[in-house]
Give the backbone structure.
Amino acid sequence: MGYLHHLECTACGAQFTPDRPHTVCERCGKVLYPRYDLDRAKAEIRRDEIAGRVPTMWRYRELMPVNDAAHIVTLGEGMTPLLPLPAAGRRLGLKHVFVKEEGLNPTGSFKARGLSAAVSKAKELGVRMVGMPSAGNAASAAAAYCARAGIELYLVMPEDAPPTNKAECAVYGSHTYLIKGLITDAGRVIREGTSGKGWFDMSTLREPYRVEGKKTLGYELAEQFEWSLPDVIIYPTGGGTGIVGMWKAFEEMEQLGWIGRHRPRMVVVQAAGCAPIVRAYRAGRDSAEPWQNAETIAAGLRVPAAIGDYLILQAVRDSEGAAYTVTDNEILADMHELAREEGLFACPEGAATYGALKAMVREGKVAPDERVVLFNTGAGLKYAELIHPALPVFDPAHPPAALRGA
């Protein structure tokens, strides 16, 4: 089915065969990327054929890592709407503001993409047991896809992960454990157990295939913009798989002849209480020191250290992008504003992108005619515990004045 050729280290360039399970580079410990025979793909795949295919991320199946379609584990993920935000645009003086609405994916977040790809490839390679740390949404997605694939899953999440994520993991039947700590602490437990327990480590960018699911965000954006790219992409960044996946997709599509050389400015947004990538970017560093005492209401942004930090920073710099932080108070305010003005109940991470756009407008970093894409990476309903409405209660015999007839 596909054109997968080899795995390549993003740091030292070492190559490995994709016919057995891999985690990170065996030589330097950095991130591995799947590489494809793009010359053959260019000769054999017609871009215009894509439009008539099933509206999921697997419409780009030849450029995905699964060789046999029988091993694809899907719940219908991908091809999410690209929605205009007219009220936000008017407020900010911008003509073309869009949101990629990832909350409509299975399990309610963009994590469905990466886990569909990773679980599918694990199934093809004969993996029967998987271990993974998560801040919340990745655990939900992993639990669903592993259940569908018949793969046993061991999850470790922070004790204060969102309640909905915990409920999802329980109902999908994963072996779920809560740790008194952060996702980095959960990751250490998983890595220590890999040799002793025999599970395959499916941590973010510590295996090569989750990024392939996330890269379909880039393919979809190009297709939805009629095979062009926007001017600015603002992306909430924890582990950063989405931003580096899109950057990889843009390179592949140019080699295929599907798009030109234009690239969006890639803009990272992190929470003020956990911003290792932003700090490293502003300091001119190529890697990010771990963030101490990470704290934010946006669970997906509470990632003190990312193995793909160097890839994120490279994408931002190569695109002449930027990096911003937003406070938890700004996130909450923007969740309410997007809901009231656009009918969009964004997750905290998604609302953070709107705060970053406001900062860019204040600084004159985006022109009125530029096309800007925000990413809402999950459904706000999964974070309902953050909203505390003070709603009036009344006796039916005595309705309030606002509800009385004339």
The two ends are 68 Å apart (CA to CA).
